[in-house]
Amino acid sequence: MKTKLIALLLIATTFCTYGQNESELKKIENEILRNPLPSWNAGATKTSILEFVKKTTKKGSPDYVAVEDRIACFDNDGTLWAEQPFYSQLFFALDQVKLMAPQHPEWKTTQPFQAVLEGDMKTVLAGGEKAVFEIVAATHSGMDTDTFNKSVKTWIATAKHPKFDKLYTQMIYTPMVELLKYLRANGYKTFIVSGGGVDFMRPWTEETYGIPPYQVVGSSVKVAYDTISKPKLMKQPAINFIDDKAGKPVGIYQFIGKKPIFTVGNSDGDYEMMQWTNTATTPHFAMFIHHTDAVREWAYDRDSKIGHLSVGLDNAKKYGFVIMDMKNDWLQVFPFQTAEKPKK
Q1: Percent of the chain clearing pLDDT 70 (strictly above)
Q2: Do 79 and 93 reside in the same domain of the chain?
Q3: Which of 323, 199, 344, 341 lies closest to 271 in space, CA to CA?
Q4: Residue 239 CB coordination number (10 Å)
Q5: pLDDT of 211-238, one tens digit each?
């Protein structure tokens, strides 16, 4: 019962630490350090995390890492929050098509927009990357950045996941929020490095994860400075940067400027980031979230089009990747679920 209460307390603080005084925040930090990762089951994975953090933060340790070099990078979709049955950003884009439809009567007879308006996801997905790009381009560009930010904030505050009927910010993984807090309590700086759109994530990551906008690296469209009416930034229908696969180490180098010593992902899209981390001569830790829990979440890896994980599993031993088993390593998955192991 005590562990469960602490876990709920830690999750609650994700949403309400802002505005608390320094004394209150220090108490929370001390509790995190006293009883770290309460929603993780005891075992090799939890032990490996605790031991790595201990050896890299203890002065006098041969693996001690200075505070300014304690960089931790996390993928978002499937790593910090759920990514099934589709990426949350795609759900956002689909909802935006419906909101924008009155201004685009041609969409009623134009694919893939017609399929979106008719709720025909089979046809949408049959269109492949081209269809998805058309939807994203139409809903993520042609507007100024402030307007887009407002639309994201409105959606994230009201939209609900189709399976669990919960806000998307409730579809976060309790153990991962604890891990972010634990690392920060030990002097680590936590970053999101995601294939998702950076403009989609930045409006809500600080309130949800405690990660400010300037510590979010993601894919982006081109932006132009416009002064026709008043100075503003306009989002363009052209790709600027894809922060996925080999793009992740590049994005870290270009936007963070320091190589991480701690990385976490869940798919082959994170492989190069993990490989880059674990081939360093300095202390390093790279972990894949393996989705093995069909009861509390979903079970998927090699055969999934969303969150495909194959190369990471095949090369885990070669590069020393930690493979975290969601079903066995987590006492709790989502904050709205009870903290208990699923029945076998």
Answers
A1: 93
A2: no
A3: 323
A4: 13
A5: 999 999 999 999 999 998 899 999 999 9
pTM: 0.91
Q: What single letter denotes the amino acid at residue 117?
A: L
Q: Tell me whether residue 340 is in a domain.
A: no
Which among 239, 253, 248 is positioned nearest to 267, based on CA atoms? 248
- Token pair listed for 323: 């493979």
Question: Pick from 105, 129, 158: which residue ends a domain?
Answer: 158
Query: Which residue type, as a one-letter code, is found at position 34?
Result: R
Give the CATH number, domain containing residue 79: 3.40.50.1000
pLDDT tens digits, 44-56: 999 999 999 999 9
**Residue 74 host element (H or E):** strand 71-74
Structure tokens at 183: 């690392």
- Pair of tokens at residue 31: 């509790």
- 294, 203: one domain: yes
CB 168 within 8 A of CB 159: yes
Q: Has residue 26 got a pLDDT over 90?
A: no
Question: Can you tell me the mean pLDDT for 249-269?
Answer: 98
Task: List the domain range (segments joined by +) for residue 10.
Answer: 2-85+165-329
Is the same domain home to 303 and 189?
yes
Cα–Cα distances in angstroms (integers) from residue 125 to residues 93, 115, 237, 251, in the given order: 14, 10, 21, 28
Which residues make Cβ contacts (< 8 Å) with residue 238, sequence separation at least 6?
141, 221, 222
**Whose structure tokens read 């830690």?**
10
Q: Do the strands 71-74 and 189-197 form a parallel or antiparallel pair, or are they unpaired?
A: parallel
pLDDT by residue (tens digit) across 137-179? 999 999 999 999 999 999 999 999 999 999 999 999 999 999 9
Do 307 and 201 belong together in one domain? yes
Cα(135)–Cα(30) distance, rounded to whole angstroms? 46
Of 101, 135, 158, which marks where a domain is finished?
A: 158
Q: What is the pLDDT of residue 19?
A: 55
